Amino acid sequence: MLRIHFTGVDLARVRMAGRPDALWETILSFHRLRDRRDARLFGEWRTETRSRLNGETRTLGMLIPGRGYFPDFLTPVEGQYGWDVGLDAIRGIHPERMRHELALLSAGTGASVQPRLREFMDAAPAHLPRVLAELRAYHRAAVEPYWTHIQAQIEAERAARGRALLDGGADELLASLPPMLRWRAPVLECDYPVDRDVRLRGRGLLLQPSFFCRRTAVTLHDPELPPVLVYPAAAHLASAPAGGDTARPAVEEQRVRTLGKLVGHTRSVVLRAIGDGATTSELARRAGVSLASASQHACVMREAGLVTTLRHGNAVLHTVTPLGAALLKGGAVAS
Question: Exposed/middle/buried for 127, CB within 10 Å: 0-12, 13-18, 19+?
Answer without folding.
Answer: middle
